Amino acid sequence: MNPTNKNHKNNEQELLNRYVAGDKEAFREIVKRYKDPLYAFLRRFLNQQELAEEAFQETFLQLYRSRHSFEKDRPLRPWLFTIAANKARDVLRKQKREETVSISTIAEPAESSIDDVVNSLTSYEITPYDEAEKTERAEKVRQIISTMPENLREILILAYFEQFSYKQMADILSIPIGTVKSRLHTAIVFFTKKWKSITSDGNV
Amino acid sequence: METLTKEQRDILLDYYFECADQRETDTAKQLLGTHKGAVEFYNKLHDSLSPLEHLDHEIHANCPDHLVEKTLERLYLHNTEAGNGQLEKLLRAESEKPVVSLSNPIVTKRPSFWRNLAESAAIAAGIFIIASIFIPVTRQMRAQATKTACQANLARIAQGITQYAGEHEGSLPAVATKAGNPWWKVGSTEQENQSNTRHVWLLVRQNYLGPEVFICPGSGNSKMPVLEKARILALADFPDRRYISYSFKLISEPNKAVLPKSQIPLMSDTNPIFENCLKDPYSFSKPEFDPVKLNAKLLKINSSSHRGKGQNIMFSDGTVKFASQRTFGQNDDIFTVKDLDTYRGTESPSSETDTFLVP
Predict the structure, then answer these.
(1) For the segment B232-290, what is each residue's pLDDT rounded down to a tens digit?
(2) Do B337 and B198 sit in the same domain of this protein?
(3) What torsion do the CA atoms of B324, B327, B329, B334 make, to the nearest 10 degrees?
């Protein structure tokens, strides 16, 4: 461990001790450190700004409220994302109740292997996109993400954007490591198949 | 594609998602260096998932300031009114509030206007002070990390250049070129269109450096597909602009391209003057460069890789500095040719002492 990492760790430990003791300054520091990654995760997962903002506030309120049950020796980031994933699911459930729309929350098992799906792509050359094409593609990606079962969506975003380890994802989602891996595979297959179908239909 | 075992495929997946341990990382790197099928699988995996990058298009992935304020306001309000010990009680009470519905309306007592106003003003002042202290600090921390990683890239490139010069009688990496060649055509495969990046591509092609060090983490192109060895050897230049986010001293006379003994700027973050004309990674297919006429703004702006605050500059003695100004030595602007205000993409430096870093 280099001195910078050691200092950072000591600093984080001290911050956590103060947070558990109810120090508001320490809590503000935590908000400061984690606001961007947390917001980005919620924004991608929930796909709507209002929902992301609601879950963001609830996450930090819950973090403060549950500080006594936090184990100081554990890193804070996975704990924070555990709360955030739960709050995001709550927000989605609430929205579903209001809209009485049923969205699948259970992932279908992957019918194809990653090899099959990945190899079905004809080329990995990247073509240039103008602004309008980028917007159109962004819309298509959001469309796929919003139709993905929640458990696939959250694991894909955690793995792709947040780079958590398998162990951390297992803790965050309260599932065994083996399930994390198989679910991530299913999520990749789901996304790739949908993307392939949507782009070949719509010629994006 | 050469066949991969399930275990090898899983290792590559773990490596892609940065979930691999040291042993798996070493195996993955070895596979990517030796196994054609592994490179193909990795690149196709990247291609399958890279559309996810579009998820952040036209939305702010960073937390908006007002949301932090709102969140702290809620905490601050609870703490101000109730004190620390009362917070749990208030939060519990809030969660136990009945749901408002038409059949169960809630009548609340409206607080006094002046009390409301005084509270709001106190909260706003508190939040303003807090926000003004810590919001910029987070941004600074992130920017500092990017800046440091970029400096490490340039330091490694400097080492590569020094090593190259040591093995080539003191020469800078330089391909056969001549004054008037289109220095902006990064990725062109045509014989006569020699972009200024072809010179430093030699460092990749001749195995002095990996291609990844030529991408500044602040450029937004940090996750590019792996370039397999065979492809690197087949190319005469970086594949396109996304693979190089640095500008290099313009070389128009290769026989004079010698590693200078004095300290002069050799490379920097992308020249900001031509960034807009070159945003399209496939700009080499354009027949001509959109002419640029200098104005007061273009003479002042810094590279966008570090939020316009400045640029990392690598000097010929291997030092790397972050500078918010663009002029060095005798008031020489590193991003322009002396006394020239219109650019067509084929300029040369006005003299041997005039540094011009492009594209």
Answers:
(1) 888 999 998 889 999 999 998 878 889 988 889 999 999 999 987 776 777 777 778 88
(2) yes
(3) 110
B229 lies in which domain range? 156-358
Question: Is residue B95 in some structural domain?
Answer: no
Angle at A108 between CA A86 and CA A101, to 5 degrees: 60
Chain segment B135-180, per-residue pLDDT in tens: 656 667 777 888 889 999 999 999 999 989 988 889 999 998 888 8
Q: Do A32 and B52 touch (CB under 8 A)?
A: no
Residues from chain B that touch A141, judged by Cβ atoms under 8 A, are 51-52, 54-55
pLDDT (tens digit, 9 = 90+) per residue, B189-214? 888 778 999 999 999 999 889 999 99
Evaluate whether residue B302 is within a structural domain: yes
ipTM of the complex: 0.77
Identify from B1, B54, B59 which residue to disrupt to test chain A contact, counting A C-beta atoms within 10 A and taking the largest count.
B54
B130–A61 C-beta distance less than 8 A: no
Please report residues of A whose CB lies closer than 8 A to that of B137. 32
What does the alpha-carbon distance between residue B172 and residue B169 come to, in Å, rounded to a whole number?
9
Looking at residue B109, its amino acid is K
pLDDT band with cut points at 50, 70 and 90 for residue A27: confident
**Tokens 């699988």 identify what position?**
B41
Residue A147 at interface with chain B, using a CB cutoff of 8 Å = no
The answer to whether residue B5 is domain-embedded is yes
Domains and CATH numbers, chain A: 3-99 (1.10.1740.10), 114-202 (1.10.10.10)
At B29, which amino acid appears? K
B90 inside domain:
no
CA distance A165 to chain B (A): 5
* CA–CA gap between residue B271 and residue B267 (Å, rounded): 10
With 70 as the cut, is the pLDDT of residue A107 above it?
no
Contact predicate B174/B254, CB 8 Å = yes
Nearest-by-CA chain B residue for A117: B48
Q: Which site among A19, A36, A58, A183 would you substitute to test the B interface, given the most B Cβ atoms closer than 10 Å to its Cβ?
A: A36
Q: Does B143 touch chain A (CB under 8 A)?
A: no
Question: Based on the domain organization, do B353 and B205 belong to the same domain?
Answer: yes
